[in-house]
Amino acid sequence: MSAYVAALPHDDPDHLAAHHFLVEEAAILDAGDWARWLGLLTDDVRYVMPVRVTMVHDQADRSAGMAHFDEDRYAIEKRVQRLLTDHAWTEDPRSRTRHIVTNVRCLASADATIEVESTVLLFRSRADDRAPEWVCAQRRDVLRREPDGVLRLADRYITVEESVLRTQNLAIFL
């Protein structure tokens, strides 16, 4: 668990902009519109999902020093390019996903950045013979307002709620 940090009011313009960004991003990911999603990322984006280790009750959970993802824009673009080929066997047939984004809290805003925390519950269904999969995670994002006035994702740190993921693969974006 992380320490509580007070959030900006829900009617704050930065909160409204961040919430809109996250909801639209979820719709774009669910539609599999990879080119549009890449357009939401800054050139220096960092996308991290550490491996979680469960500790005894008097110690906080921690990262194992490893990550499921620790990617920059180049790595993300390569992953997207692979998804668009005939060689992405983990996505044949393509996953049907639904990103449910909730508990959106803007923790701080500065000149051009907004720090936002959200919870995402990902529903994933593949083919007809597999049980659906769920992934629940907290995301800590930094959104940056670029010179063109558009918000873009500059940093995403994903903390999954399980130390053992019950999903066949991670050919998805959270």
Which terms summarize this structure?
single chain, six-stranded mixed sheet, about 20% helix, Nuclear Transport Factor 2, Chain: A
Notes on the structure:
The chain is an alpha+beta fold and 174 residues long. It has one domain: Nuclear Transport Factor 2, Chain: A. Helix content is 20%, strand content 43%. It contains 3 helices and 6 strands; from the N terminus they run ααββαββββ. It has a 6-stranded mixed β-sheet with strand order 2-1-6-5-4-3. A hairpin with an 8-residue loop joins β1 and β2.
Helix and strand topology:
Elements: H1 13-31, H2 34-38, E1 41-53, E2 62-72, H3 73-83, E3 96-109, E4 113-125, E5 133-145, E6 151-160
Q: What's a concise summary of this model?
A:
The chain is an alpha+beta fold and 174 residues long. The protein has helices at 13-31, 34-38, 73-83, and strands at 41-53, 62-72, 96-109, 113-125, 133-145, 151-160. A hairpin with an 8-residue loop joins strand 1 (41-53) and strand 2.
Order of helices and strands: HHEEHEEEE
Task: Tell me the strand order in the biggest sheet.
Answer: 2-1-6-5-4-3
Shape: globular
CATH topology type: Nuclear Transport Factor 2, Chain: A
